[in-house]
What we know:
Two copies of one chain form a homodimer. The first copy, chain A, is of the alpha/beta class.
Amino acid sequence: xxxxxxxxxxLKESFLFADIAHKVSAYAEAHPDKKIIRLGxxxxxxxxxxxxxxxxxxxxxxxxxxxxxxxxxxxxxxDFLHAxxxxxxxxxxxxxxxxxxxxxxxxxxxxxxxxDIFSNANTILIPDPVYPVYLDxxxxxxxxxxxxxxxxxxxxxxxxxxxxxxxxxxxxxPNNPTGSAYxxxxxxxxxxxxxxxxxxxxxxxxxxxxxxDPAIPRSIFVIEDAKKCAIELCSLSKTxxxxxxxxxxxxxxxxxxRKTESGKEMELNKMWLRRQTTKFNGVPYIIQRGAExxxxxxxxxxxxxxxxxxxxxxxxIMEGFDKVGIKYYGGVHSPYIWLQCxxxxxxxxxxxxxxxxxxxxxxxxxxxxKMGEGFFRLTAFGSRENTIEAMERIINGLKK
Amino acid sequence: xxxxxxxxxxLKESFLFADIAHKVSAYAEAHPDKKIIRLGxxxxxxxxxxxxxxxxxxxxxxxxxxxxxxxxxxxxxxDFLHAxxxxxxxxxxxxxxxxxxxxxxxxxxxxxxxxDIFSNANTILIPDPVYPVYLDxxxxxxxxxxxxxxxxxxxxxxxxxxxxxxxxxxxxxPNNPTGSAYxxxxxxxxxxxxxxxxxxxxxxxxxxxxxxDPAIPRSIFVIEDAKKCAIELCSLSKTxxxxxxxxxxxxxxxxxxRKTESGKEMELNKMWLRRQTTKFNGVPYIIQRGAExxxxxxxxxxxxxxxxxxxxxxxxIMEGFDKVGIKYYGGVHSPYIWLQCxxxxxxxxxxxxxxxxxxxxxxxxxxxxKMGEGFFRLTAFGSRENTIEAMERIINGLKK
Lengths: 400, 400
């Protein structure tokens, strides 16, 4: 008799975005005359950069001609993309070997699949509030999960606690959903904790391209010895608008070595290579050519223009909240603005207020964990016009 | 202390293709004047069909324009591709619901990742010889694996044995590496076994497009009640030359229900949906548009032309072996010809003979499992000219 995975029974159904969609559509139906502005979306809206489109168009044409057609590629990605990423990392001071970089279809897949190479006996440390994938993928393999609290007192940047023993630690900086970003000194503390405890940090750098201050690390590998205790996951989704184009990369340094429970020493880079060559067949050649263009001089320039557009939206949102005295986090090194709901409202009360009184849609912080209760996420991915109008409505609405 | 997955120590390093590459390059270096013909490759060589290239070029252009840009898509794939597949399946008599089909980046990923939704306590039944992914992915999660023997006596099509209790069963038909294909009657026996034992069949149909006889099933779901005991994995790699373009699909019927060890009844379709929405972010929009074109009337016609080209190569190979009295399997419903090495040679002896005497490269059967010893795989993916020349060399070489 085939048994199915019991751990799936422990997953909570997430109704967050379904509930939001339901409420918004019910409101829209009852009030067809009202213009609803959506600033809850965690997805980019600007098109791909021209040089990326050109590179993919060229690659598509190559696939139709026998002499340039490409079949199976290397599971870990083409050398041309590794080379582009080695150069990109060097631009912020990180030296990588080509074979420390694994091209993937996105950070979501990798931050979930990376669990494969770890023992199920590990204790997993996860921030709250959090991107739900870290939590659910570990529940699926029945692991012991503990939480660290993000809260106003620590600017939603939880720090290591020597009394807590964690084996695998998820960090996301700049953070989804709070937009907070660790400083170099804070990451040094995390690296010191991980080295002392032989822990491994899974560092999600999906929003690194939004970092505006050179003092804020764009990679955990700017920290000395981080290569001995960290895996970095990154994505082109927010860097280059690849949410529907799908490409990311994961860095597993050769220096990262841990033991099995029976004491066998393993290089995690080799384990991940084995995992990927066994369970994955690489990212489409066409997409890898697009990704290569992202990291070209012209590509970086074009992608920066889109990011600057979103950053100006974020600035407009922050300026609005400054005017009405609402406390917020993020927004500077992140497309996310994480705000404290006014007047002691709960996340969902504020959601209802924004929708019903002002016709603005955001995301209740409570959807990202219990520490998110009383907070709310707005994103900078709307159009300029809608962002300005939404903030005018909010400023006027909260003044009343 | 973070422990890594002990099961990885039980994986055998596969040197098959590395060993082949090493031997071939050493020979080529020592004999620069000799023309080596490679018929070992398991990868397509003809370019993508024109209508597929056109569809992807259009999709690439859409991604560069704000009004047609696509961000995150549904993890399980776009409705337009589901609709195309529902129609495709109907063409060989299988009725599917749209939400029974999950679009993926290929059958390799899915036949590996599908292990996630099963308990590690299951006994896994795997054919020998076999595509190594079935084996290695189950070793990675520490499962009990048993084998069923493919051999000349059963035409390399092992059948169920009532004395063997298996929970999860991998079947691949038409088979890689042997090219053998189960008849409808044989699959009915497998379905009866699975239903009787509450087992689940993981049916790899990656080569279904090579079936030439309507009496040979192209889907396990032509068998009555197979929806109660089977998951089907398929790929566009060999159907449409997508080995470097990456798209596949997995069918998990709603009727497939099994229990957890504690007795909770679960619909596997819902479990797989949860797995995919948690750990995967879908196939690139551009690629899905290409896949949609594969299943259009024009696309099917164009892809069939490439398959016909490979099938003619297979016919030439089989005709050659008929002339010299070499026994083989496959080749009819498959791009693979699985032959018995002549004169009692081992797989590697025959490899060396072909390389050194005739400058033809194939794949030693022993690389696919112990039952492959004494057998050898040639593929129909070479050019017509090379296939003809290789067979002339083999015919003349074996006559001597």
